[in-house]
Amino acid sequence: MSDLFKVTIDGQTVEVAPGTSILNAARSIGGEIVPPAMCYYSKLKGSGGKCRTCLVEVSKGSEKDPRPMPKLVASCSTPIMDGMEVKNITSPRVLEARKGVVEFLLINHPLDCPVCDQAGECHLQDLSYEHGAARSRYEEERRTYDRIDIGDKIQLHMNRCILCYRCVFTADQITNDRKHGILFRGDKAEISTYIENVIENDFSGNVIDVCPVGALTDKTFRFKSRVWFVKPMNAHRSCTSCSGKVALWMSGDEVYRVTARKDTYGEVEEFICNTCRFDKKKASDWIIEGPRKIERTSVISLNKYEKGVKVEAPKKIGYGNTL
Ligand code: SF4
Ligand code: FES
Question: What does pTM read for this prediction?
Fold first, then answer.
């Protein structure tokens, strides 16, 4: 008898090890049946369970107990059972709930993509494109914060934070002196550096890469270019702190920024050190391997804005917010 559990997601069956989450089982199948994930990050222990974008419907609990689960469940933190049947894009309930989740995430998130450094590679931008409403119903005032410089290389723009906790887990798990965390609760919760301590650690720059939105940005790249004007190249160098394998974002011979290489789910393949990220900005610092393919369903890989979608004129919705 096989030690693997069989799970069927949107009609596609796969066998995975017991304990695997529904999300990871879906990722092992791949394609459009994979639920979106804004807070789960496979490289970070304890991540997931915060954003609810990965909700799915379990239409059959298991072979032994085929009753469906009454409520939608977070696929990133629900383990599969043998014989389980799951619906993601085939479930109208899931698609409806996901719309609601996106609306919630956008309640406090400013609609400032045109001036946001993350535009073009923002997971929330992609998620809103797929599941968001054309217009916001929100009429209250959004919470706003001043921008904070966390050291000379990273800027925190808390207005855009969706409280996914990824940056906190990153600092906790790959650096040895986490200086920031989430303070307060509910709609008062915010990322804080405890009296704005500088995050100075050789791996601190990775919080920029794991942030799914434009809340943590690279000050050495901010406003230098839009991501769709620079070309990602695989490159490496010999580094004593990290693997030295990075993506260079170049225009001609100029290196505009250095990031970790990301996989199809937007997760870094290997965390990189600050020396590679911030101090090696010359093409001659690197052995350039060649162009890198953007595999994520991102606006910078699919030319989504060229599909001839009719965009309605912006409408004032109160308190100066437009959509
Ligand atoms: S700053 Fe970015 S990574 Fe950190 S909790 Fe907010 S959205 Fe998540
Ligand atoms: S990815 Fe599952 S709750 Fe955020």
Answer: 0.86
| Distance from the Cα of residue 45 to its chain's centroid | 16
DSSP calls for 41-77: -TTSTT--SSS-TTEEEEEE--SS--PPPSS-EETTS
Ligand nearest to the CA of 214: 1
- Give the nearest ligand 2 atom to 54 CA: 2
Torsion of CA 134, 100, 28, 38, to 10 degrees: 90
Test site for ligand 1: of 121, 161, 174, most ligand atoms within 8 A of the Cβ: 161
End-to-end CA, the chain: 56
Residue 158 alpha carbon, nearest atom of ligand 1: 1
Domains of the chain and any CATH numbers? 5-93 (3.10.20.740), 226-291 (no CATH)
Task: Report d(CA 190, CA 182) in Å as an integer.
Answer: 5
Whole-number Å distance between alpha carbons of 204 and 317? 39
pLDDT digits (tens, 9 = 90+) for 255-303: 999 999 999 899 999 999 999 999 999 999 999 999 987 766 666 665 5
